[in-house]
Amino acid sequence: MVDPAADAPDFWRISGNLVDPLARRIRPATLTISGGRIAGISWDSIEHDTWLLPGFVDAHVHVESSLLPPCEFARLAVAHGTVATVSDPHEIANVLGIPGVEFMLDDARRTPFHFCFGAPSCVPATPFDHAGATLDAAGVATLLDRPDIGYLSEVMNYPGVVAGDPEVLAKLAAAKARRKPIDGHAPALSGPALASYAAAGISTDHECVTLDEALEKIRRGMQILIREGSAARNFDALAPLIDSYPDRCMLCSDDLHPDLLAAGHVDRLVRRALARGSDLFNVLRAASVNPVRHYGLGVGLLQLGDAADFIEVDDLESLRIRRVFLDGAVAAVAGVSNWPRLTSAAPNRFTAQPKTAVDFTIAATAADAGRPLRVIEARDGQRVTGCVIAQAHVVAGSLAADPATDTLKIAVVDRYNDRPPAVAFVRNFGLRQGAIASSVAHDSHNIVAVGTSDEALARAVNLVIEARGGLAAVGPDAHRFLPLPIAGLMSDRPGAEVAAAYTELDRFAKALGSPLAAPFMTLAFMALLVIPAVKLGPSGLFDVERFSPVGLFAD
């Protein structure tokens, strides 16, 4: 048997116990690989000591959330057996528009990894956002005309779909006319509104947090993407779908920071599903077969004539990956990618000017003390928030943060226009001192920050502004900072280095008092105006369920 190098010979063979996800059987076999495809399958009479499985697919991910450009993301992901992603580039689209999407496509082409990018449907996510670009129906149609755009990305404006907004419907019509799938985003939507949403041709949802919610959406004909990322972790609640509806679910990460990506990807979910007792072939349907078929990916499934995209593992319990193959070439060995590190371009848009503590001050009178104040309630492991009422804390003529009651200030600074920050209050970040700030702030990617004082907010925000993008944490005597020069979203450094820097930043934020599992990922969703219940936009507090702005005070 020829043992292929990274630059695989045109003709070679590999033997192993072939796990066929379509025939639902395991048989010893020898594959003949020619021209990057499976040219022959012969059945062997003795069992081999390794197993061959189809490569894994992340069915919904924002590559930008890894803080890495596509070619570097691919180097980390492929080491864990991931051979393809269904990727929504709406993060960079909100910063740079179509040129941002083109950057992702161009960067991705430099790697053999299978990227399927979508046309972002919501740039900006709502009319209440201030983004760096706008993608109207004509712009979306232009992207959908491209053969390297595979689908219409998540339609977050579900109120627009239900209300029949002409611009939203035009984007849906453009995808249908080109016979490209339409991804959904409909947190907690149910009843007649969900029926209207699904009937509009939207075929998936990755926002389910309960099994009942997922089952209702399945009854409406939707595919459920079981999500486990850095901020939203819904695998445990939805994993029963893998066996009860194996043809109606997929696995995804949605948003995954580099520390977790360096440690594992879809393989981690596959192992968890197997450990809970799910059938192997049902798991492979969710991890490989369903996304390949739903999105029409050019990814092999270990069938005769398929692209030679597969993984070689030691056993079906630990699922320890020996090698990963893409198009017949060895892409990774023992958890290390064979692909070279490449340097990416660094397009950006960042015009915000430095701020002072005064910019974060909210003037108040003595009469305001004790008034009912709307406070965003962050929830660990979720992107949804609550809203609680707290008594206003007035100090020296202004509304102040109160770390003793974990009522901290939160601010959104418009990075595209120099204007006053929006400031409100938040709980459950738990900082006892200092502040954290980020230019990764879904979906418009303005600067979002949480702090214990106006001075700390200004210090953290200014670190981000001076570098034109990054993640910052400041304490009384020290700070940590991770620059993100690519659109204020991604680093230009090697993935392992970024993962280590992020781990240190995360550790520093937790030393300031945050109990959150992923404080920066949770922070990134505090400005997302399409996830219930209350968020902070660049113009102030926003009630997602009412889909309208609300004031700081609840009286």
Instruction: Give the CATH topology of the largest domain.
Output: TIM Barrel
Strand % is 25-35%
User: What's the total number of strands?
Assistant: 30
Order of adjacent strands in the largest pleated sheet: 3-2-1-4-13-14-15-16
Rg, please? Answer: 24 Å
CATH class division of the largest domain? Alpha Beta
Annotation field: number of helices: 16
- Provide the helix percentage: 25-40%
Class based on secondary structure composition and strand pairing: alpha/beta
Q: Tally the structural domains.
A: 2
What's the end-to-end separation, in Å? 77 Å
Ranges where pLDDT stays below 50 over 5 or more residues in a row are none
What's the shape?
A: globular
What's the CATH architecture of the largest domain? Alpha-Beta Barrel
Characterize the main sheet.
8 strands, mixed
- The fourth-level CATH homologous superfamily of the largest domain is Metal-dependent hydrolases
pLDDT average, as an integer? 95
How would you briefly describe this protein structure?
The protein is α/β, with parallel strands linked by helices and 555 residues long. The chain is built from 16 helices and 30 strands. The termini are far apart.
Pick out its properties.
2 domains; eight-stranded mixed β-sheet; TIM Barrel; globular; alpha/beta; 555 residues
Secondary structure layout:
Elements: E1 11-20, E2 25-34, E3 37-43, E4 51-54, E5 56-61, H1 70-78, E6 82-87, H2 90-96, H3 98-108, E7 114-119, H4 137-144, E8 149-155, H5 158-163, H6 166-177, E9 182-184, H7 191-199, E10 204-205, H8 211-219, E11 223-227, H9 235-238, H10 241-244, E12 249-252, H11 258-263, H12 266-275, H13 280-295, E13 310-313, E14 321-326, E15 329-333, E16 336-337, E17 362-363, E18 372-377, E19 386-391, E20 394-395, E21 398-399, E22 407-413, E23 422-427, E24 435-438, E25 447-451, H14 454-466, E26 470-474, E27 479-483, H15 495-511, H16 519-524, E28 534-537, E29 540-543, E30 548-549
Parallel strand pairs: 1-4, 5-6, 6-7, 7-8, 8-9, 10-11, 11-12, 18-23
Antiparallel strand pairs: 1-2, 2-3, 4-13, 13-14, 14-15, 15-16, 17-21, 18-19, 20-21, 22-23, 22-25, 24-25, 24-26, 26-27, 28-29, 29-30
